Amino acid sequence: MIEILTAAQVDKARATGALVADILQDLRGRSVVGTNLLDLDRRTAEMIRDAGAESCYVDYAPAFGRGPFGHYVCTAVNDAVLHGRPRDQALADGDLLTLDLAVRLDGIAADSAVSFVVGEARPAGSLELIEVTERALEAGIAAARPGARIGDLSHAIGTVLGDAGYPINMQFGGHGIGTTMHQDPHVSNNGRPGRGYKLRPGLLLALEPWVMADTDELVTDDDGWTLRSSTGCLTAHSEHTVAITEDGAEVLTLPSAPASRPSA
After folding, report:
1. Which residues bind a divalent metal cation 2 (predicted)?
2. Is 250 annotated for ligand binding?
3. Taking every pair of C-alpha atoms in the chain, what is the biggest distance, in angstroms?
4. Which of 122, 181, 239, 246 could form a disulfide with 208 if both were Cys (CB 3.0 to 4.6 A apart)?
5. How confident is the model at residue 260, as a pLDDT?
6. pLDDT band for position 1 (cuts 50, 70, 90)
């Protein structure tokens, strides 16, 4: 299903996007050396509840997962890149952490992800991985406008990732979003320009470039959810929800303020 939202629904999506962005910023500020992933999950549940929203993840049970996800935020560390199921793990100095969050507020969903390095250490290649996904995301957003084709966005994203020398996995990518979290059209992280669905005002897309440093192959943890690089290499993932407007693409999941560290 491809869903075109009304102006009133897009306005609701702005509120959902702001909530997702602010939760991610709060979690980023709390993600210090020693923080437990389960504590981040509990904080997410608290903030969703306090906002009168609902999680898109806790009861999520697609065919590729093993039963309901059962948690409120994806927490992927180092070689994990997608669907990272929170577990009893304390963050260490230099961990590359990806937080991925989807929430529904007043009937409309938004989805966003951010990758960053915890603490002071900077493992080789970690910042470059993060930066290339952020640039690819910017390129995809810049290509998103009425009349453009999905392939134009995929090509823009894939050009940045490929030119940086990273392999590109085509199994998972961006997607439509609206009253439900995952909708058509699928937005691959590489593709041919001029192909695919023509973008229209009112369409919401979650664009999400992600890469693994030296492979395009994934393996799945025993939890049935967490996807890791097959070689154990570092990974990164950046995502925004955008609304196609008459003028281009409006990013709905920008944070309202920089992340701040929790007080002692």
Report:
1. 111, 175, 208, 239
2. no
3. 53
4. 239
5. 52
6. confident
